[in-house]
Amino acid sequence: MRHLDPDRLVLLALSDEPRDPGESEHLAGCADCRHELDAFRGVAGLGSEAQDLRDLPPPPEHVWRAIEAGIVSPVRARTRRRRPRWVTTAVIAAAAAVVAVAGTVVVERVVDRSAAEQVTARATLKPLATVPADAGGSVRVLADGKMSIDVRNLPLTTGFHEVWLIDPDDLSRMVALGSLTDRPDAVLPVPPGTDLNRYRLVDISDEPHDGDAAHSGRSLLRGTLTS
Amino acid sequence: MNSDDELAERLRDGDEKALRTAYERHGAAVLYLAQRLLGNRADAEDVTQVTFVAAWTGRDGFDPQRGTMLGWLLGIARRKAVDRLRSAARDTRVTESVRAQLAPPDGLETPERVVDRLVVADELGRLPEEQRRTLELAFFDDLTHHQIATVTGLPLGTVKSHIRRGMANLRRRWEVDGAASGSRSAGPTRAL
């Protein structure tokens, strides 16, 4: 017995081809050909339901940011020992700058309110999965190049909390801005020339007092700067 | 960079940009599957996140020889979504309702069916332009081959040939990547 041609079965599966009597007779007696026909009918059924799936909306950016947060630590752990020395210097410089800035914050806020109000970019900080959900914060980059950071309910640490700007396209690239004090708000200078379109992921980490200037890999809050 | 092979290679090398590319290409399908299975957006987004993080962690396990990246991701997402349904049920100690959720009542799709639809839709989008257009007219607009020939101006023989080849491509992809592909071991065809 000759089986039906596979090409013919495809056309029959789409059902607008009339079957000739020989074909009907063969199908009635041949399980293999019936099986093939059913398989193509299945494909046609799935295909006709594909219309709704053609224009799915693009997946949301905030889910991507959560994915980034989920994959960052191992990458960071691998790269932390390869940190160039200048970064350490930068962190120390930034820390020194914090001390200097802290003394001027109040004055600036009172006297130069208009400059402080000019926000060029902002971010909402969300807790990572391991951090209590009520932790959070917000970040504003001001027109004068400083970054104002407000945080709440950060987990207590025996070390300190440090602020970073990370390149989400290459998570081993980051700029240390400085550490947070006990106050809920802080203003840190962004190093002049820092490309905030690239280093747009704001990260607050828990750093031990281990003398290692590299990121500890323990991120607490994250948020992406948008202008 | 176009092929899954290249993307897989970059992913295995630990290139985060490859994961981003995978998210841009397939994140919508993963989210769609999760939402169909879990029924709410927040859980679906969680499962999407967990799926891509798991894909990153388990990137050495993706073998382009055994299926496409979409099929692999949908497989992970389906397991994560089912895990979530099960653990939700454990929490509330209502195993009966879970069983009901895992075997949806009449009118709802099974996880397998949703995966199959996504895989076939993806393959349809990858077909050569004329093949795809011809099949879309047959599937979506329910046109006969003669009507398709009239609409497109293609000779009837060409229309039939596009449909044959297109259907063969969709079937092959379904067999490689469809929900039953993991459990099927014998023969190239599948029972329905």
UniProtKB/TrEMBL annotation, chain A:
<dbReference type="InterPro" id="IPR018764">
    <property type="entry name" value="RskA_C"/>
</dbReference>
<keyword id="KW-0812">Transmembrane</keyword>
<dbReference type="InterPro" id="IPR041916">
    <property type="entry name" value="Anti_sigma_zinc_sf"/>
</dbReference>
<feature type="region of interest" description="Disordered">
    <location>
        <begin position="206"/>
        <end position="227"/>
    </location>
</feature>
<feature type="transmembrane region" description="Helical">
    <location>
        <begin position="86"/>
        <end position="107"/>
    </location>
</feature>
<protein>
    <submittedName>
        <fullName>Anti-sigma factor</fullName>
    </submittedName>
</protein>
<feature type="domain" description="Anti-sigma K factor RskA C-terminal">
    <location>
        <begin position="92"/>
        <end position="213"/>
    </location>
</feature>
<keyword id="KW-0472">Membrane</keyword>
<keyword id="KW-0805">Transcription regulation</keyword>
<keyword id="KW-0804">Transcription</keyword>
<dbReference type="Pfam" id="PF10099">
    <property type="entry name" value="RskA_C"/>
</dbReference>
<keyword id="KW-1133">Transmembrane helix</keyword>
<feature type="compositionally biased region" description="Basic and acidic residues">
    <location>
        <begin position="206"/>
        <end position="215"/>
    </location>
</feature>
Automatic annotation (TrEMBL), chain B:
<dbReference type="Pfam" id="PF04542">
    <property type="entry name" value="Sigma70_r2"/>
</dbReference>
<dbReference type="InterPro" id="IPR039425">
    <property type="entry name" value="RNA_pol_sigma-70-like"/>
</dbReference>
<dbReference type="InterPro" id="IPR036388">
    <property type="entry name" value="WH-like_DNA-bd_sf"/>
</dbReference>
<dbReference type="InterPro" id="IPR013325">
    <property type="entry name" value="RNA_pol_sigma_r2"/>
</dbReference>
<keyword id="KW-0805">Transcription regulation</keyword>
<keyword id="KW-0804">Transcription</keyword>
<dbReference type="InterPro" id="IPR013249">
    <property type="entry name" value="RNA_pol_sigma70_r4_t2"/>
</dbReference>
<dbReference type="Pfam" id="PF08281">
    <property type="entry name" value="Sigma70_r4_2"/>
</dbReference>
<keyword id="KW-0731">Sigma factor</keyword>
<dbReference type="InterPro" id="IPR007627">
    <property type="entry name" value="RNA_pol_sigma70_r2"/>
</dbReference>
<feature type="domain" description="RNA polymerase sigma-70 region 2">
    <location>
        <begin position="23"/>
        <end position="90"/>
    </location>
</feature>
<comment type="similarity">
    <text>Belongs to the sigma-70 factor family. ECF subfamily.</text>
</comment>
<dbReference type="InterPro" id="IPR014284">
    <property type="entry name" value="RNA_pol_sigma-70_dom"/>
</dbReference>
<dbReference type="InterPro" id="IPR013324">
    <property type="entry name" value="RNA_pol_sigma_r3/r4-like"/>
</dbReference>
<protein>
    <submittedName>
        <fullName>Sigma-70 family RNA polymerase sigma factor</fullName>
    </submittedName>
</protein>
<feature type="domain" description="RNA polymerase sigma factor 70 region 4 type 2">
    <location>
        <begin position="121"/>
        <end position="170"/>
    </location>
</feature>
